[in-house]
Amino acid sequence: MKIWENNSFFFLFPQLTGWLTELKQELQSEEVSDSLDGAERLIEQFSTQRDSTLDACASTIAEGKTLLEELK
């Protein structure tokens, strides 16, 4: 059995880097809201994306560490 078959790092890493690229493009956009409600929605969306990104980064790091331990 190959090590990478038991580890999702090889799936998570490219997915995460693509996601981060998309997120960076979104954050660099000049989208603004015309209303307080719209601004609050954008802030909530950013907060949700931030939390999801941090969770995905933590998972990818953990999988990478597991893979490194298996390779030792």
Please, could you describe this protein's structure?
The protein has 72 residues and is an all-alpha fold. 78% of the residues lie in helices and 0% in strands. It contains 2 helices and no strands. The model has no long low-confidence stretch (mean pLDDT 81).
Question: Could you give the topology of this structure?
Answer:
Layout (H helix, E strand, L loop, with lengths): L8 H20 L7 H36 L1
Helix pairs in contact: 1-2
Helix content: over 70%
Give the low-confidence spans. none
Query: What is the radius of gyration?
Result: 17 Å
DSSP strand content = under 5%
What class, by secondary structure content? mainly alpha
Mean pLDDT across the residues is: 81
Kindly report how far apart the N and C termini lie: 16 Å
| Biggest sheet architecture | none
What is the element string, with H for helices and E for strands? Answer: HH
User: Number of DSSP strands?
Assistant: 0
Number of helices: 2
Shape: elongated
In short:
With 72 residues, the protein is mainly alpha-helical. It has helices at 9-28, 36-71.
